[in-house]
UniProtKB/TrEMBL annotation:
NCBIfam families: ilvE_II (TIGR01123), PRK13357.1 (NF009897). InterPro entries: Aminotrans_IV, Aminotrans_IV_CS, Aminotransferase-like, B_amino_transII, BCAT-like_C, BCAT-like_N, BCAT_family. It catalyses: L-leucine + 2-oxoglutarate = 4-methyl-2-oxopentanoate + L-glutamate; L-isoleucine + 2-oxoglutarate = (S)-3-methyl-2-oxopentanoate + L-glutamate; L-valine + 2-oxoglutarate = 3-methyl-2-oxobutanoate + L-glutamate. This is Branched-chain-amino-acid aminotransferase. It comes from Zea mays. Coiled coil: none annotated. Belongs to the class-IV pyridoxal-phosphate-dependent aminotransferase family. The gene is LOC100191754. One of its GO terms (molecular function) is branched-chain-amino-acid transaminase activity. Keywords: Amino-acid biosynthesis, Aminotransferase, Branched-chain amino acid biosynthesis, Pyridoxal phosphate, Transferase.
Length: 402
């Protein structure tokens, strides 16, 4: 019975061999076993035990509204869901239509471009469930366009904006029961674009794979909504002029793990990077942008190629302007940071995260007596109520799925 259910959940089109864990099967029964293997024994890293139980019965409970997960204690760990989207692109530069397949491991050539030379990009966006059951995406066309810009920089073909958005919608709807109930979190959507074709000498890969998987998430930082503590890094840098800091390429992230690890060992939440030339101006945190507030004027480092152009950053700027704040995109020195009234970070994962303290060269500065600054709070409320559909979408930023 369970096998039948798995078959029913599989797409009707022929499945490409490279999706299977082992070489092409000799008999259909082996293929079924392979698929079951890939679904049920892929390690569930951070998910609670109850998620495992929900997972085992994925294909027999397709109709249930939501999975049985510990929604109160969602963090930012990977919880595997039912389906993922896959499309491929050969040398002609056109992506295949793409299909939904059960979530699981993929086969890659050991000489693929992504494994050997880091030819890869990712994106991140979220879906929220409203109390009436409708599902909202936030500015997905921005992610689609950013992936296209990044792909150009990394010499990769990219899906069209339409295909990207359509693929995101399909993936969210197929995994609908994993979207946390209103107020408990969101469904984090992770599009990936990689050079999956084989190369040996350094060159763009001859084939590309576009994948989207999703995971229910709660708060990014373990502090939750409490202010985070950052350390300003003056030895390591995440980006240099002319480099790839401005695109979401995978290599930018492994390179910051060392600084992040050292910071976390000392009790900090994350690292704030300075520019690599003067070692004086703020850039951003490992995976979020930074803002400082002084006398009600909001400032953030300008986008000049070394900072990731965050969609949350851009949205916060527009929300702040619409509320009458003065907003400046410019060079922001570390001295200004230490003298600020409030500091906060923005990103899809962290949303708006207030900064409680900054440590720079052994000196610690605290903001708002460890509280959440008035401006940060106001912007947080405006943006999140818009994203979650709690207020009218006066910016026209949300896309309703159902
Ligand atoms: C993704 C990311 C951000 C935030 O971008 P959003 O579009 O707001 O999610 C900021 N900095 C870095 C380095 C990032 O990778």
């Amino acid at each position: 019975m369970e096998y039948g259910a798995v078959l029913a959940a599989a797409p009707l089109v022929a499945r490409p061999n490279w999706l299977l864990l082992s070489p092409p099967p000799l008999a259909p029964s082996i293929q079924i076993q392979n698929r079951l293997y890939s679904i049920s024994s892929f390690p569930l890293k951070a998910g609670p035990v109850r998620a495992c139980r929900a997972l085992a019965s994925n294909y027999t409970r397709q109709t249930s509204e939501t999975v049985d997960l510990d929604w109160e204690n969602l963090g930012f760990g990977i919880v595997q869901t039912d389906y993922m989207y896959i499309a491929k692109c050969g040398t002609d530069g056109n992506f295949s239509e793409g299909e939904m397949v059960p979530f699981g491991p993929i086969a890659l050539s050991p000489s693929s471009g992504v494994l050997n030379y880091g030819q890869g990009l990712f994106e991140g966006l979220k879906a929220y469930k409203k109390t009436d059951g409708s599902i909202l995406l936030f500015r997905p066309e921005e992610n689609a366009e950013r992936m296209r810009t990044g792909a150009e920089r990394m010499c990769m073909p990219a899906p069209s904006v339409e295909q990207f958005i359509d693929a995101v919608k399909q993936t969210v709807l197929a995994n609908k029961r994993w979207i946390p109930p209103t107020g408990k979190g969101s469904l984090y959507i992770r599009p990936l674009l990689m050079g999956s074709g084989a190369v040996l000498g350094l060159a763009p890969a001859p084939e590309y794979t576009f994948i989207i998987f999703v995971s229910p998430v709660g708060n990014y930082f373990k502090e939750g909504l409490a202010p985070i503590n950052l350390i300003v890094e003056d030895k390591f840098h995440r980006a240099t002029p002319g480099g790839t800091g401005g695109v979401k390429t995978i290599g930018n992230y492994a390179s910051v793990l060392m600084a992040q690890k050292i910071a976390k060992e000392k009790g900090y939440s994350d690292v704030l990077y300075l520019d690599a030339v003067h070692k004086k101006y703020l850039e951003e945190v490992s995976s979020c942008n930074v803002f400082v507030v002084k006398d009600n004027v909001i400032s953030t480092p300008a986008i000049k190629g070394t900072i990731l152009p965050g969609i949350t950053r851009k949205s916060i700027i527009d929300v702040a302007l619409s509320k009458g704040f003065q907003v400046e995109e410019r060079l922001v020195s570390v001295d200004e940071l230490l003298d600020a009234d409030e500091v906060f970070c923005t990103g899809t994962a962290v949303v708006v995260s207030p900064v409680g303290s900054i440590t720079y060269q052994g000196k610690r500065v605290e903001y708002g007596h460890q509280g959440v600054g008035v401006v940060s709070q106001q912007l947080y409320t405006s943006l999140t109520s818009l994203q979650m559909g709690q207020t009218e979408d006066w910016m026209g930023w949300t896309v309703q799925l159902n």
